Amino acid sequence: MTVGRDVRVPHLVMRPGELGDGVEPELLTESRKKVLGEFARRAAAYTPEWTARTVDDAGVAILRVHATLAAEAHRRLNRVPARLALDHLRAAGVRARPPSPAQALGAVQVEEGAEAPVETSAGSVFTTSAGTTGPVLETEHGCSALPGRIGGVAVLAGGWTALDRADELDGLAPFGPRPRPPAELWLGVESALAPAGTLTVAVELAPPPGRATGSASATSSPTPPPLLRWEAIAASGVTELAVDLDGTRGLDRSGVVAFRVPAALDWPATLRPGQTTGTPMRWLRARLLTATFRPEARLSRVALNGVSAVAARSVRGEVAQPLERRATGGATYRLTSTPVLPGSVVLDVAEPASSLGAADVVQRWVQVPSLATAQPDDRVFVLDPAEGLLTFGDGVRGRAVPEGYRNVVARSYRTGGGTEGLPAADDVLAPEVSTPDLGGLRVLSITTASPAESALDVLLRGPGEIRSRLRAVAAADYAVSALGTPGVDIARAHALPGRDPLTGTPRPGTIGLVLVPHSADRTHPPAPSAETLQLVADHLARSTGIVGARVHAVAPRYREVAVNGLVVGRVGADLAALTTTVRRAIDDWLDPLVGGAGAGWGFGEPVRWNALVRMLLAEVPELEAASQLSFRVDGRRLPTCADVELAAGELVWPGTHVLESVQGGEGGFR
Fold it and tell me: Which domain does 531 fall in, by range?
């Protein structure tokens, strides 16, 4: 996507920059050496009598000082095109997106000697090793945490398949390789205490190779989730348990299942049917009632006392600070903790009562993307997440905030996001508030959060957002709108109109979307979760897309590309360090998020061997030459100097490069 018109005209020198295609005009000479060269060239014409330009000459000293100062001033002036573009985008309503918080799946730990379940409420905070100054995990629901664990997992599908370790299930099929009713999944709760209150179980699915956890695609008309019946094997017989929360959608994705256990339920520890030896446990059974369960779903591990958590902190009962109240209407208030998570602000405004002497009436106001379409009586506001600014209407576009003192109160909002200091899987976090018998929170898995949007990202996204006007009509509009889906973390999106994104075959009426999330993991290709795919597909089909269009969102198909070749170092270069630098440069160049020109490798963009050579010679100073380059694609070696062609929507992922290094002058190009 190019920002603005093409400014590359013959009399302008182009330089690397932040504008759309990675270059921008050099308005003024930037380096000190170039400034001195300009002076030397003009001195002969303007001061021909000045011939003794030696080191100790006063004029030379003045020129050097001036060149040093001018180079810095020129560098700042050369940033004007990018700054002007950003200012124009901001005036048009385009804002940099705030950082998004990581989502975590965890298990509450309880001391073995606990005499009663530990009640953990929604909003419980657990701190990382950085303490209160670092990111925290806040639970999104409560549980009655028990000491103990899930001590056994068994599957009944034609016969029994049982495992004694619930944290290493090795891809166990929860209802057998061919899931059909009446297949059953049995979970054994091994605890000294009987379950009471809210019993929760965390389920982590194993992602198929190269895909996100769960399904590889999602459409705007999804199939219904599998229907399960959860039961306790009680003393009086099988008792159905009410499900208060099912974040797994019928064990279709990773999440938490919460059950309501009746206080009078007699749930003894017994052996599983067909089991003659072992530890008695309280058995929880899931029966498959429909034939819509995905056969590729596999269990990674199951944990007792499961909770979903978010890397953010809730702020409650804060009085918003008034910043501006214009005479023509409209007002701006500020929240103190930033960045604010969009959609998390619960705002109350005290308004004067209609009758004299009556108490003020507290009204709930809601956040909207823009005041442009608001009616005069709409109680709405616009949030600037990065600055924590609340902008209200002027009585024409949105209701004006009534005058008053401390009358705008944020009942609650969340602050956080970013990638710094996040815990890793299997870390145990301490509770912020000490509670008897509460040991902490064990992190089972955590998603990668996204940082705040950079100026380059705003420049790339902004023109498309202005063009689409928050409506998806053209194919490019769908990609831009996908990036703005609430509650998802998407770094890149690519639209394939009229095409099935999985098979590549034409399909009229379908918009294929390939989505790439943010990721700091350089060991696996970034792939969105099934929930992310579904949220994007639903958002585009119901909110911004053309009525009747079918949106099909998928994870990218990656082609593993590795490089074979000979690298020639300059005389005296450290060959080991040179090989490492070249390998790292190739990895960065092929990266789907930061590769190519810096914004990620292009969807379907071929990998040219001559472009690789130019990149290496530009990025690695100690490299003298690169020879005999060839690519391996998904393990298959191509001929020397052959390019890698990609299908529409495909991306590359760097493989293991095989590089031989020699010193310049010791054989060179063989």
Answer: 469-554
